[in-house]
Amino acid sequence: MKVNEVPQDDANMLDGKLKEPCYAVDENGNYTTIKSVGWEAKNIVMQQAWSNISSKIDKVRLKVLDKKLSPIAYYMEKNIMSPKLLSQYTGFFSFTVRRHLKYKAFSKLSDEKLKKYADTFDITVEELKDLSLLKLESVNNAE
Q1: Which of 2, 69, 97, 105 would staple 73 via disulfide (CB 3.0–4.6 Å)?
Q2: DSSP per residue, 51-77
Q3: Per-residue model confidence as pLDDT tens digits over 65-85
């Protein structure tokens, strides 16, 4: 593709604020990088992917509000993390993280352990414990 053919379909999710480099051929036939805000097909796929992620987050949020899962599960999903990845960040074993995803086990955790999770998610321990914030989260996502 030539430099003047690099797609600039400004309908991406970030409103053109983020441009990614694409390779193109300049007027001398040399490869160069050109910044692009995206192209329609890619933008559609990205919007579908983020919609899917948002849907998964909302399903987990509802399970947390029903106390079927712990708030750790919600923040883990929101940060697109797996139990294995979260265990690497917190220093807990993966099986320990999976146990902490259950509400009953979560409710017995010490503030020291909760702080490890909160620090990983860049929130306070109080925010991690406060289920009312998750109720507000759905209102904020709807806007």
Answers
A1: 69
A2: HHHHHHHHHHHHHHHTTSS-HHHHHHH
A3: 999 999 999 999 999 999 999
